[in-house]
Structures are given as structure tokens and as C-alpha cells.
Design a protein that fits this description.
Blueprint lengths: L1 H19 L2 H6 L9 H20 L8 H14 L1 H7 L6 H16 L7 H8 L2 H8 L7 H11 L3 H8 L7 H4 L5 H16 L2 H10 L1 H12 L4 H16 L4 H7 L3 H11 L4 H16 L5 H9 L1 H9 L9 H15 L9
């Protein structure tokens, strides 16, 4: 009985799709024909989504049944319904969009023992991930796609597909869009992708260092204050993560990066100054500073000591910050002149 009901629901969704979705999708779906006015089709689609959500999450009176969840997931795989719903998310009403995100995330979390069948399914259908990423280009579905993407980012296999795609680099554009909510949501997803799976992320950053950090520099120089602050904070987290040791060594060996941090230490915003401090300290604390880095520090030795002595003196209760600041001042004071360059 449950199986027949599920088949009826997915068939109805496919039928609704013919009225509200483009013709090429109708052909791709092998054609169920149902001619309904647009509004009625949207209403019926929303009803079907609500019924499916109820099956997945249960009600106050009844818990969801494992056999129903398995049958529902099977129907979604067989009908390619996950991709279909995402492709046409913009055609579904607001409550329906929320239902799609909840349905997607629930089916994604489904496990059989240690297996995650929906993760395995999406690995064979990576266009689902690429379509979700492109959702950030459409204001009416961006936040819903972000919710689904961050759920995908919990799984290393899916994160690997995203990071190794050219589409990932669109995040450098998405985090700077003019709509604050979308830019913030995109940055949350961007951060999750770069920090969730430590070994994978370290491997990705190391192998794609030039491409990633050439675009990352644009974020640090952004005209948008929030973008600059978030990017600077994330940079500090990435460099201080022990898994990213090779990436950190490469970053702090570049004198242009040191110059940028010294400029940001003098930014008008105290928050940006503070985040810049946590990146600057990595350059100074490096016991194997390359000559170009030492030359900059020595050239500005007295100014840096004076500047750091007066830097954020009101943070008297922040013991870790004050210990780190005292350590940097000591390190800079003790720098010895370099021998002539041979």
C-alpha cells in the first residue's frame, strides 16, 4: 500500500512538472500528460511535497516507518526526482521550496548500516551538486540551495566532487553578491567546504594553491567590509590548522602576503585589525623566515615594535592576545641584521 501511494505521489509530481516545467524536461521525463492551470499545478505540487515530507518526518501521532523511507528514496532515485525538483525549484511556491530542502536533506541523511545510499546516488549524478551551486545565481532559491549544499558538505565524497569542479570557483563571486543574506549564506557554504574534511581540504589547497589564493586575495581586498572581515578570519583559521602546514608555509613565505597583512593591521576597522593580527603573527613566529620576509620585518623593526606596543591596549582581559602580542614584540626586537646578500 505504501509503495503504491509513493508511486502515485511521484507520478503526480512528474505530472505537475509537465505543466509548470519547460518542454525539454517534459521530453526528458518521458512524458506524463496532465493539462492544469499553472496555479492549480503549483498547489497540487505543494500538496504532494507536504505528503512526502510527512512520510519522512512523521507527525505528532506517528513516527516515520523505515520501510516507507526506503521505498520513498527508491522512488526518488528511479525517477531522478531530486534533480528534477532542484532544477525547477524556482517554479515552486515558497512553502514548497522549504519542503523540497527538508525532503532533500532527510533523504540525504538516510543510512543503511555504514552506507549512505543517497550520497552514493549523488556521486553518480554530480549534476545535482552543480545545479545546487548555480542556485546562488537566483535570488529566490539561493538560500534553499545553500541549505541543501551545506548538508551535502557533511559528506567527504560529495565535498570532493564540489572542490574538484570548476564550479567551486564561482563561490569567489557568490560571496560578494550585493544581497547580504545570499552573500553571507554563500560564505557559510564556502567555509564549510574548505574546513569540514581536514585532510581533503589540505590536499585540495595544496594542489590548487595558486588558483585558490590568487582569487582569495581579491576577497581580502574587497570593497565590502563583511567580505573582507570574514575572509581574513577564515584565512587565519586555515593557516593555523595543522593539516594545512604546507599551505601555511607557502603563504607566509610570500612577501606580498606579509605586506598585505601589515596594511590591514592599520585598517580603520578594529575588527579587521584584530583578524589581521592573527595572520601577521604566523609570519613573525615562523622560525625559518625566508630572506625577503626578514628584510621587510627588519626594515620596519622599530615601527613595528612601537605599533604593536600601542596595538589594542584596551584588550587587557584577553590573556592569550596579550601573551601573543608580547611574544611578537620580543621576536621582532631580537631580529638581527642580515649578512650581505651573496
Amino acid at each position: 500500500m505504501h509503495l503504491q501511494l509513493l508511486k502515485d505521489l511521484t507520478k503526480r509530481l512528474r505530472s505537475m512538472a509537465e505543466t509548470i516545467f519547460p518542454g525539454w524536461i517534459v521530453c526528458w521525463m518521458n512524458g506524463y500528460s496532465l493539462l492544469l492551470p499553472l496555479v492549480e499545478a503549483q498547489e497540487d505540487t505543494s500538496k504532494s511535497l507536504t505528503q512526502i515530507k510527512t512520510m519522512l518526518y512523521g507527525t505528532t501521532d506517528s513516527e516515520p516507518q523505515d520501510i516507507v523511507l526506503a521505498q520513498l528514496a527508491h522512488e526518488f532515485y528511479n525517477t531522478n526526482m531530486l534533480l528534477l525538483l532542484i532544477l525547477n525549484l524556482h517554479r515552486i511556491d515558497f512553502e514548497g521550496k522549504k519542503d523540497v530542502a527538508q525532503i532533500f536533506n532527510n533523504i540525504l541523511r538516510r543510512q543503511i548500516g555504514i552506507r549512505s545510499p543517497t550520497v552514493e546516488y549523488i556521486c553518480t549524478k554530480p549534476e545535482i551538486l552543480f545545479t545546487l551551486m548555480k542556485g546562488y545565481e537566483h535570488q529566490d532559491i539561493a538560500l534553499h540551495c545553500g541549505t541543501m549544499l551545506r548538508e551535502c558538505a557533511r559528506y567527504e565524497a560529495l565535498t570532493r566532487i564540489i572542490l574538484n569542479s570548476d564550479d567551486f570557483y564561482n563561490f569567489f563571486k557568490y560571496v560578494e553578491v550585493s544581497t547580504f543574506d545570499i552573500a553571507s549564506d554563500a560564505f557559510s557554504t564556502f567555509k564549510e567546504l574548505l574546513t569540514k574534511h581536514k585532510m581533503l581540504c589540505a590536499e585540495f589547497l595544496e594542489q590548487n594553491y595558486d588558483r585558490v589564493f590568487s582569487q582569495y586575495e581579491n576577497l581580502l581586498n574587497s570593497d565590502n567590509y563583511v567580505t573582507r572581515r570574514q575572509s581574513l578570519k577564515l584565512l587565519g583559521e586555515l593557516l593555523l590548522d595543522r593539516h594545512n602546514f604546507s599551505v601555511m608555509k607557502r603563504y607566509i613565505s610570500n612577501p606580498d602576503n606579509l605586506k598585505l597583512m601589515m596594511i590591514m593591521l592599520k585598517e580603520r576597522s578594529r575588527n579587521i585589525q584584530f583578524e589581521a593580527f592573527h595572520v601577521f603573527k604566523v609570519f613573525v613566529a615562523n622560525p625559518d623566515k625566508p630572506r625577503p620576509i626578514l628584510e621587510i620585518l627588519l626594515r620596519n623593526q622599530d615601527k613595528l615594535v612601537e605599533f604593536l606596543t600601542r596595538f589594542h591596549t584596551d584588550r587587557s582581559e584577553d590573556e592569550q592576545f596579550n601573551d601573543e602580542k608580547a611574544y611578537l614584540i620580543k621576536q621582532i626586537k631580537e631580529l638581527k641584521p642580515l649578512p650581505p646578500d651573496q
